Every structure is written in C-alpha cells, then in structure tokens.
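Annex B, item 7. Sequence and structure tokens for protein A, then protein B.
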Amino acid sequence: MEAIFNNDDFYIRNFNFQGNIGLLSIGATAVVLFGVLKFVEFFLVIYASIKASNGELYKYPLTINFIK
C-alpha cells in the first residue's frame, strides 16, 4: 500500500481488500456492536425515566452493588 499526500489531496495506491479483510471485518463488527449498544442504552434511559416518573424504583442492569 502506498499513500501519497499532494497538497490537499490524499491518494492510496495498491490497496487490496484481500490482505486487510480481517482488519476490515473486525472494524465493521465493532461499528455494528457500538450501534446496537447505543440503541440499547437509549431504550434503557427512556425505560428508566418512565419508571421514575411513575414513582417506581428502577434497578440499573449489569451493575455491581458496592455499598449496601
């Protein structure tokens, strides 16, 4: 792979996907996982706010109780 900087332009020559398919698949998986986790976070924030507005106690999932 050869990268060329020419003033404000950036060119990449000799880039093939076969040599980088592992890196690209890990990157795509990370982006999809990040999107799913953000969607779940958004849903849980809305759910917790609805519970709090009804006066109910909401226990956050996947938390460790350090102080009892």
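Protein B:
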Amino acid sequence: MNLQGVPILILVGETSYHAQYDHGTSQWLRQAGVQHDFVRLQDIGIRGNGHMMMLEKNNIEIASVVNDWVQETCAAQA
C-alpha cells in the first residue's frame, strides 16, 4: 500500500537468477494494487544479460531503456 504512486520498474535480464521468479513479484504488486512496469530485456530485443546488468558490455543500451522509462514516467506524472 505504501508503494502506491511510486514509479516502479522491474527490469529482468534473461540469464539473471531473478528471471525465474520476478514475474511473481510483479503479480504480487498488482494484487496489492501497486501499478508498475515489468520488462524482460529479451522481450525488447536485448539478450543474454544477467542480474548485474550495469556491468555488462551492453550496459549503455540497458541504461538507455531505463532512462527512456524514467523520462516517460516523469512526463506522465507531471
């Protein structure tokens, strides 16, 4: 309940250990009434990343996804 109104992005790398269960975290948040975005990197064409995506060779590409999400989310809330 305290997370309602807080922008949340769940971003999952294809080979992250979180890939097995982060969809459950997303479902739990939805059941609690918390709006959020759930993005699997492989679904948007970014393949092979693990949990520590900021250390991956394509970290700039992933940072761009996060930056775009922040820009869109902030614009929508303004």
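Comment on protein B: DSSP finds two helices and two strands in the chain.
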